[in-house]
Amino acid sequence: HGWSEALAGIKSPHVKYICPHAPVMPVSLNMNMAMPSWFDIIGLSPDSQEDEVGIKQAAENVKALIDQEVKNGIPSNRIILGGFSQGGALSLYTALTTQQKLAGVVALSCWLPLRASFPQGPISGVNKDIAVLQCHGDCDPLVPLMFGSLTVEKLKSMINPANITFRTYSGMMHSSCIEEMMDVKQFIDKHLPPV
């Protein structure tokens, strides 16, 4: 709900915004307490074990949402995936593994999950030239800026580096700010112009 409100402040009239809720599940990092989560989080260090099954299942769920929009008459190359934190991680992973050609990805305060599962060098998929806007706060205590920097370096080796924009925001923690939302609006308007 919070993100649909944030997007309401920047949305263009010709763009449809869909903000799916993550399912509620027990999260290891949160002492197995149930909370909205796209997949399990076991730890927050770069070498933490990852929930491969959960990440792949969540990506399939996002691909199903894309399929539904395509059935509704929106070509996949007019669809941008986006998300914050775990949702941003899922958006990146989905865009790099789907056979659906997408318009772009907005990845906020996040990382690339299962990064070791990707081959070294450029991907050969339909989204090898996808536009990516990656944003991160320089004071993020939860997903450190270093994760964002490592992710953008990995992305530059996988997809056309000319299409990747990495923005950092001074003093921003694990959250968003007006300046970031304006950058998101500019990205969406550029890659989804009115038809």
TrEMBL record:
The answer to whether keyword Coiled coil applies is no
Instruction: Give the GO cellular component terms, alphabetically.
Output: endoplasmic reticulum; nuclear membrane; plasma membrane
**Can you say where in the cell this protein is located?**
Cell membrane; Cytoplasm; Endoplasmic reticulum; Nucleus membrane
Query: Which reaction(s) does the protein catalyse, per the Swiss-Prot or TrEMBL entry?
Result: S-hexadecanoyl-L-cysteinyl-[protein] + H2O = L-cysteinyl-[protein] + hexadecanoate + H(+); 1-hexadecanoyl-sn-glycero-3-phosphocholine + H2O = sn-glycerol 3-phosphocholine + hexadecanoate + H(+); a 1-(9Z-octadecenoyl)-2-acyl-sn-glycero-3-phosphocholine + H2O = a 2-acyl-sn-glycero-3-phosphocholine + (9Z)-octadecenoate + H(+)
UniProt-listed GO biological process terms: fatty acid metabolic process
Q: Which UniProt keywords apply?
A: Acetylation, Cell membrane, Cytoplasm, Endoplasmic reticulum, Fatty acid metabolism, Hydrolase, Lipid metabolism, Membrane, Nucleus
Show the Pfam families listed in the entry: Abhydrolase_2
- Tell me which EC number(s) this protein carries: 3.1.2.22
Phospholipase/carboxylesterase/thioesterase domain mapped to chain residues:
1-191
User: What coarse category fits the chief subcellular location reported for this protein?
Assistant: membrane
The organism's place on the tree of life at top rank: Eukaryota
Q: Is the Oxidoreductase keyword given for this protein?
A: no
Q: Name one GO molecular function term.
A: palmitoyl-(protein) hydrolase activity
State the function annotated in the UniProt record: Acts as an acyl-protein thioesterase. Hydrolyzes fatty acids from S-acylated cysteine residues in proteins such as trimeric G alpha proteins or HRAS. Acts as a palmitoyl thioesterase that catalyzes depalmitoylation of proteins, such as ADRB2, KCNMA1 and SQSTM1. Acts as a negative regulator of autophagy by mediating palmitoylation of SQSTM1, decreasing affinity between SQSTM1 and ATG8 proteins and recruitment of ubiquitinated cargo proteins to autophagosomes. Acts as a lysophospholipase and hydrolyzes lysophosphatidylcholine (lyso-PC).
Assembly and binders? Homodimer.
Q: What PANTHER family does the database record attribute to this sequence?
A: ACYL-PROTEIN THIOESTERASE 1, LYSOPHOSPHOLIPASE-RELATED
What does the sequence similarity comment in the record state about its family? Belongs to the AB hydrolase superfamily. AB hydrolase 2 family.
Protein's UniProt name:
Acyl-protein thioesterase 1
- Per the UniProt entry, what species is this protein from, by scientific name? Cariama cristata (Red-legged seriema)
Lineage of origin:
Eukaryota, Metazoa, Chordata, Craniata, Vertebrata
